[in-house]
Amino acid sequence: MQASFPLSESKEALHSVIHSINANGKTKAKLLGLGLGLGQDIDVIRNRRGDIVLRTGQSRISLGRGLAEKIMVIEA
Fold first, then answer.
1. Which of 32, 40, 49, 73 keeps 20 to 30 A from 56, CA to CA?
2. pTM of the model
3. Which pLDDT tens digit goes with each residue over 34-53?
4. Strand ranges (E), the chain
């Protein structure tokens, strides 16, 4: 099995899957509302020093670095 790493460390154009979310219930509910849950396929569009832009399905989502550090992914 591949080792998981924070979404904030993902390279641009990387296809990955959400492995776990290290956050409280309120934050997990917010992410689920955005369509980001365990097992969700995501593609990193942009990862620079600030926010991270990702694509899931037909949606594009921008997350702050702090929130992206709580999402653990594995490369798909």
1. 49
2. 0.92
3. 999 999 999 999 998 889 99
4. 5-6, 15-21, 41-47, 52-56, 59-63, 71-75
